[in-house]
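Give me structure tokens for this 656-residue protein.
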Amino acid sequence: MRKILCIILFILPAFGFSQQLPLESFVKHGDYLNMTMSPDGKHISARVRVDGKVSLIFLQTSTMKIVGGVRPNENDEIHSAVWISNERVVYQFQESSIYYDEPRATGELFAINVDGSSNDFLYGYRAAEITVGTRLGKREETYATPEIISILEDDDRNILIIEHPWSVDGNTYYDDRIKNTIVSKLNVYSGKKVRVEVLPHGGAHAFATPKGDVRFMTWGNEESYYHSAYRENANSEWKELPLSEQSRQNLVVASMNNTGDKAYVWGTVGDKELYTIFELDLKTGEYTQLFDGMTTDISNYIVDPITQAPVVGHSYPAKASYHYLKDSGTFANLHKALAASFVGQTTTFASASEDGSKILVRVDSDINPGEYYLFDAKTKQAQFLWANRSWLDPRQMASTKPFAFTTQDNVELHGYITLPSNLEKDNKAPLVVMIHGGPILRDYHEFDDEVQLLANRGYAVMQVNFRGSGGYGSKFKRAGYKEWGGKMIQDIIDATHYVTSNFNIDSDRMCTYGASYGGYAALMATVRAPDLYKCTIGYVGIYDLNYAFSESITTRLLGGEAFLNRVLGTEKTILDEFSPVNHADKIKAKVMLIHGEKDAIVPVINAEKMLEKLELAGQDVPYLNFRKSGHGVQNPEGRLELYGALLKHLDENLGK
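Here you go.
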């Protein structure tokens, strides 16, 4: 099969070329977003951006012709779509407003048939007043966020959903997951809703069998820890999952098989406490570790479409790595063959028919924003469907290389370096240290539009997964607790020294840049190493850690305050010492600040106070405030302005 695939599939040439591309090529949003397959494999639903609108289209698999779809109103988007039968899809809108620069999900559900008929409003706070199709039956208005948990295989007219009721403060509703979760049955034609039960916890997620039996539940508590429970049937008491001898932490349900007698749960193993998946057999109470041999966390997995059991695990030590069960069967073997054909790229199964005969394969890499193929498991042939960001040629993108080093205190760190494609052998490139947010997120070997923009403009880009990042085990993540302005920043500085010693980097021309925690760390690194960097750019960064408790929406979320207490601590002297706003006079690098006026996660007061302190210290600071933006700028015009100004700041301080 591998020989056949290598002939059929598009293989990029080894050579490449580079030219300066328009700024718009990197900052505008993708066009071909995601695809899913109908249960019988005869149709595909796809979210596609055309003329700035994200529409939903339906394609016939045999011909790839469009047979139906939904086009939203001006500036609205199709947010998500789920097949609930071979003919019908439930979808959600994101709705634009005059107050924000991006459409926002409204918590409303609609349904439509593949041929475009029976387009009905089913669920939401306006369900009682708006009619999309021709059905005029009375619907109940609901102020909640729904999730589909079962398509009810024996019932063509109903689905099982969970509802997360909103909290209200004045005239504003919040999906804060405080109130108890509700399980309901929803008619996908009339919108009639019948309450089934109320779960005993707020923000709980339920897992149901194809027949609608709710067997498992996962929830968080006010201490910001997650728990899971199970029951034998609807009349049984909930019982917390039994502890596992292998995992040192609470096990959290991720999915279940199609019969409901086995759960697949996240747990940790080994000295690094790496995350992996365990299978819990409810009949015996025994746990079996499914994936092993990792050096980093299992981050996601592929399930067999027939059994719904995990068969392929993904981890990312440097590039993508795959982990197969010993007796994983045909579906996993298909993935193994396809992954071997797409060498150097990440291969995932985005969707499949319920019998596994047709598979939507997604392939991406550091230079490839993502391609979709339709794979026929019987003929072993793959048909190219489309590529996201179709205007970009992967041959014009810069390759990203992994690196690893050991810090002064003997911690192994991993990162990525991207050099400009046109950098000559004996020349050195200016460096942008690009710091990820979270900080419990991580950087991957994947396409990144910011990295590619900077590389296309002649800048090298370094990304490092400092301690406290996710993906490297629970122990590594905890190593960042209460070290936001301490060891985590030193890791970034150490990584900078490593890449300047091992790659063609001009150590006299370096700048830090990041968003959210990355924006904080960008400035804090220039506090700790004032002579190392020539400039710094903080994007929606928190610059006074005390504001995390007093100003951010985080504290109103379930477990939010406990999370902050754990990761930041409550000792004011340390919070003050770790806050860039108190060290403006130490920053020699030229600072640029970018923030959204409506940012609820890191409120704009952070940028305002940082700007005030920097100006008192004598800095002339370029400051971009986006009036309608929240925790990041989303509209195309704003992104053009942002990245144009960012490049100007780099050029002025590092030189092109």
